[in-house]
Write a structure and sequence with these properties.
The complex is a heterodimer. By secondary structure, chain A is mainly alpha-helical. Helix content of chain A is 78%, strand content 4%. Chain A has one domain: MetI-like fold. In chain A, strand 3 and strand 4 form a beta hairpin. Chain B has eight helices and 21 strands. Classes of the chains: A mainly alpha, B alpha+beta.
Chain lengths: 265, 381
């Protein structure tokens, strides 16, 4: 423990509670209350109701949940495969090339997502690469935005992996594919799951690029929320946000359980 | 064939031939390794006979692990060839070399149970299920870990994990077993036990060729048939363990292997028919086992700390006198440091006179000519 005095610890806890409460909990609490508010004209809402949830459920909410989940799964899975592949391949390169390609991989995450969406819209607007108005372009935009994070996570995992495991496996007669499948990937499992979870969470909340490229009939949750709040339907937008949070949380908790079971942690 | 096997507390009889690999020799033919322009292993020529334990020892960065990794196939030699038995393995990938390897941190696969770790190599090589079952059972019995088959590595102590790592390497019946500082991560007591157990293991598997890399001279002296002492990417001495200990060919070997005392002397008379030469240290004439020194040569008289005595007996015909500087009591041993004509001399004694001299006192030291050897002073390698 860094702080030994009791008053010092109390001050630190209060500081933590203040930061956590104001920056993290307060916005979420406001959204939760909004989703349940009958009316909200003062400091606190007047009356609670589940009508907004019923309204969004009657509307296109389910389709939005489905679109977000499918997009999140597909883009995250694709990002996981390519990010892992890239991390494994770059490990074999010289330090200069590794650094350069590693940096290139991170560029999309430094570009505003709206610009990524615009870029894809322009790039894929002519044959033979005509993807405008398709679900594929939504998937691609999400993939471009999240792949750097999967690459980063898997690279960090690989850097922590002792080369002894793979070398011992090789010395025992394991060919590269067998070694990858039975040693490297299982040892990387916690990082792969973390990478997938982060990618999925990012994809579920992605708006900037999606709003540029989404086709009719594939409206993700953030786009629906944006549309509702843009129209002034704050309470319905809040209800949909809570559904988004719940869907993401359920999946992340599920992934955590899977990881614990797989690694015995 | 029945043999006493490798167990911690119990002794069991098993068929040692079941886990024995067909030993092969390992031949380094002018093998060098370089990282860019930095040469980490200068051309090395060395032959490890089938069934032999060769210990490579030396300080950090001396090239011993690089040599082992070259055999394993994890570094490519810049020049030279490596042969295992009749096979030139220089260009073969690691998985085709038929080796077993044990490393310092065990590298047991944490997501696999003990039995799956041991079976790994056999499964990777596509062995039949019944054969895998039989080999796993035998290998675990060999290292006294049969009852731990269903455990995960995290449920084992360091010593147990290392036994499993050895079982895993033995299960594939390697031509050569590579041990890379296998005991370095264990504490002193367990390390001592493991050294004895590895010695016992090799007695039960006499055909197994072992390349053992360590920086610990005790492990090397206890286990190895031969020792290669490495320094700055070169072998500075190589030979049978007892020979290298008793008659070190150069200063580095004498000091690294057993921390010998080296008294500078001038040869008075070269070795006679019985192999003893006389040499002068200051005013004192001493007798020691010689090589091919000639009168007038500058030389070093090598004497082990435990061969120096504070009391004379009929064999201790050499006598030198030094000033006592330090006394370190370590239970069963007492270490003394004396100044003999400007040269620090260490004495390790199990028995000491009742009245131990005080630091600063002049103390006579006695030793037998048979416990000494002369080595050239300019052999800096």
């Amino acid at each position: 423990m860094l702080v030994w005095s009791r008053p010092g610890r109390i001050v630190l806890w209060m500081l933590f509670a203040l930061i956590f409460g104001v920056l993290f909990l307060a916005p979420l609490a406001v959204i939760l209350l909004s989703s349940l508010a009958d009316q909200w004209n003062g400091v606190l809402p007047r009356g609670l109701t589940t009508a907004h949830y019923a309204d969004v459920a009657r509307g296109a909410a389910w389709n939005s949940v489905k679109a977000s989940l499918i997009t999140g799964f597909a883009a995250s899975a694709l990002a996981l495969v390519s990010g892992t592949w890239a991390a494994l391949s770059l490990r074999l390169q010289g330090p200069a090339l590794k650094r350069l390609l590693g940096l290139l991989f991170f560029i999309p995450s430094a570009v505003p997502s709206v610009s990524v969406g615009l870029g894809l819209l322009v790039a894929f607007s002519h044959p033979p690469l005509l993807l405008n108005g398709t679900i594929a372009i939504v998937m691609i935009s999400h993939f471009v935005l999240i792949s750097a994070f999967t690459f980063g996570n898997v690279s960090a995992g690989l850097a922590r992996l002792s080369p002894d495991f793979e070398q011992v496996a090789s010395s025992l007669g394991a060919r590269p594919a067998y070694r990858l499948w039975h040693v490297t990937l299982p040892l990387l499992a916690p990082y792969l799951v973390a990478a997938f979870g982060l990618s999925f969470a990012l994809s579920m909340g992605e708006l900037g690029a999606t709003v540029m490229v989404y086709p009719p009939g594939w409206v993700t949750l953030p786009v629906s929320i944006f549309s509702l709040t843009d129209r002034g339907d704050i309470f319905a937008g809040a209800a949909l946000t809570m559904i988004l949070v719940a869907a993401t949380l359920i999946l992340l908790l599920g992934l955590e359980r899977v990881t614990k079971r797989a690694t015995g942690a | 064939m029945s043999a006493v096997t490798f167990t911690g507390n119990s002794v069991m009889d098993i068929d040692a031939a079941k886990v024995r690999g067909a030993g092969s020799n390992v031949y380094f033919d002018k093998v060098s390794v370089a990282y860019g322009t930095h040469v980490v292993l200068h051309p090395l020529t060395l032959d490890i006979a089938p069934g032999e334990i060769l210990a490579m020892i030396g300080p950090s960065g001396s090239g011993k692990t690089t040599a082992l990794r070259a055999v394993a196939g994890f570094v490519r030699p810049a020049s030279g060839r490596i042969r295992i038995g009749a096979t030139d393995v220089t260009d073969l990938p690691p998985y085709e070399r038929g080796l077993g390897m044990v490393v310092q941190n065990y590298a047991l696969f944490p997501h696999m149970r003990v039995e799956d770790n041991v079976a790994f190599g056999l499964r990777a090589q596509g062995a039949d299920k019944p054969l895998i079952g039989e080999r796993v059972k035998d290998a675990l019995a060999t290292v006294g870990m049969a009852t731990f088959a269903r455990r995960y590595p995290r449920e084992l102590s360091g010593g147990q994990q290392q036994r499993v790592a050895i079982a895993r390497a033995l299960a594939v019946r390697p031509r050569v077993l590579l041990l890379d500082e296998p005991l370095s991560a264990l504490d002193a007591q367990i390390r001592r036990n493991m050294v004895e157990e590895i010695a016992r293991l090799h007695r039960s598997l006499p055909g197994l060729t072992i390349l053992y890399v360590t920086h610990d001279q005790t492990e090397a002296l206890t286990l190895a048939d031969k020792i290669a002492i490495m320094r700055d990417g070169r072998v500075c001495s190589h030979g049978p363990t007892t020979e290298l200990y008793r008659r070190p060919p150069n200063r580095f070997t004498a000091e690294f292997l057993g921390r010998a005392n080296l008294l500078p002397v001038t040869v008075v008379e070269g070795a006679g028919p019985k192999g003893f030469a006389t040499a002068r240290h200051g005013d004192v004439v001493l007798t020691g086992a010689g090589r091919d020194e000639r009168a007038g040569d500058k030389s070093l008289l090598c004497i082990r700390p435990q061969h120096l005595s504070l009391t004379a007996d009929s064999e201790h015909t050499n006598r030198i006198v030094g000033t006592l500087r330090e006394v370190h009591w370590q239970g069963e041993l007492t270490h003394l440091v004396l100044d003999v004509g400007g040269t620090p001399v260490r004495v390790s004694a199990t028995k000491l006179p009742t009245a131990l001299p005080e630091p600063g006192a002049r103390v006579p030291l006695f030793f037998a000519p048979t416990d000494t050897s002369l080595l050239p002073e300019d052999a800096g390698v």
